[in-house]
Amino acid sequence: MIKLLNIVGARPQIIKSAAISRCIRSCFHDQIEDIIIHTGQHYDQNMSSVFFLELGIPEPMINLGIGSDTHARQTGEMIIGLEQVIQKIKPDIAVLYGDTNSTLAGSLAAVKLNLPVAHVEAGLRTGSKYNPFPEEINRHFLDVMADLCYAPTQSAKETLLAEGIPETRILVTGNTVVDALLVTAPQLHEFTVPALRQLDFRPPHRTLLVTAHRRESLGAPLRGICLALRDLVVLSEELQVVFPVHLNPKVREIVWPILGDMERVRLIEPVNYPDFVHLMKSVDLIMSDSGGVQEEAPTLGVPVLVIRDTTERPEGIDAGAARLVGTNREEIIATVLQLLDNPNEYRQMQRAINPYGDGNAAERIVDSIRHFFGLLVSLPMPFQAKLRQPNSIKI
Question: Which of 100, 113, 99, 77 is nearest to 5 (CA)?
């Protein structure tokens, strides 16, 4: 029996790990023991026991409850806590997700104890050391330490090869965030948030979903985004905006004064995962600085505008499913109006190839781990992006 340590610390990581946990528990529970450990890096009301139930996985065996602090203190406390967990549980492999301090700490704790490391979302890069910070720095460390590098795309694999990572350690899998999305999106759903139940998503209304929370967006960039939204609602009578406002006070102190009095702007609290998936399905356009949303929107056939100056997920932009618009007020306004007024351009983005996954990333990862431990003769076939079928748009 392989003891697999699933280390998570942030909400997106739990969503991405859920697909792997479900795959293990439904198909390989006789070969792999799935042990979920939560560092407690992020905690909010949307990460209660209900959150794990919605994802179809049990709550973590251990929650270290580290919380927020300086990067050094937070990472150091996580390493100490995870080292103790590893020494007690004696797992055979640690699986880490993304690029947070939890991921870095988990990898360091594992490597120092000679525990093999698998990195899900390997090879993502912006090429800018401090943008985003500390994620870009964490990524470089992670992929050097990892025994198994699960690159979501061929482009990510090529980045790893260029950095000297041996090809034998790399498998292109797609992203497990797509797996999670494709489980949730087809389900019948009624919004739990009254403000969302009251919205009419049908024509002539055009709905823009906005999320913005990244560290590099705070201050002047976020102010520019909000001013652009204010102008857009004035310029387009059919446009309505839905903006789940992050709990960070630095986000709220900008968003609410600029947009709080706008009639067709719904500022709401962060929503649960099923609500958010079905909200993405319902809208016409998404504008976000989130990494996960850049992968989820093309999967649903919803055009996405990336409000950042750079992205570690260029595949969506190259495919035409996403556009990098930055945080300039005029650029955002011009791009949104262009898409709303030009049906042909809008449809081209809808129908663009989805480069991020096919719903089978978790299966590839689990099979790769089984191969690593000699339980499977051959490695799984890597993920290859394919042209979108017309009936796959707007699940």
Answer: 113
Element (H, E) at 5: strand 2-8
The domain containing residue 150 runs over which residues?
2-172
pTM equals 0.93
> Facing residues of 119 across strands?
96, 149
| Tens of pLDDT, residues 245-286 | 999 999 999 999 999 999 999 999 999 999 999 999 999 999
CA-based R_g, the chain, Å: 21
Does a structural domain hold residue 93? yes
Q: Which residues contact 231 (CB under 8 A, 6 or more apart)?
A: 329, 333
What is the set of active-site residues? 99, 121, 135, 213, 215, 246
Contact 18, 56 (CB under 8 A): yes
User: Is residue 45, in this structure, part of any structural domain at all?
Assistant: yes
Is the pLDDT at 116 greater than 50? The verdict is yes
* 44 band by pLDDT with thresholds 50, 70 and 90: low
Q: How far is CA 354 from the centre of its chain?
A: 15
Strand, coil or helix: 186: coil
> Which residue in the block uniquely carries the two structure tokens 């995870």?
82
User: How many secondary structure helices (H) and strands (E) does the chain include?
Assistant: 16, 13
96 burial type by CB count under 10 A (0-12 exposed, 13-18 middle, 19+ buried): buried
Mean predicted confidence (pLDDT) in 179-203: 95
pLDDT tops 70 at residue 141: yes
Between CA 111 and CA 9, with CA 160 as vertex, the angle to 5 degrees is 50
Record the tokens describing residue 285, joined without a space. Answer: 């356009």
- Whether residue 372 lies inside any domain: the answer is no
Give the number of other Cβ atoms within 10 Å of residue 202's Cβ: 8
Question: Which pLDDT score is estimated for 53?
Answer: 81
Exposure on the CB side of residue 167, measured as CA atoms within 13 A: 3
CATH number of the CATH domain containing 27: 3.40.50.2000
Q: Are 145 and 326 in contact (CB under 8 A)?
A: no
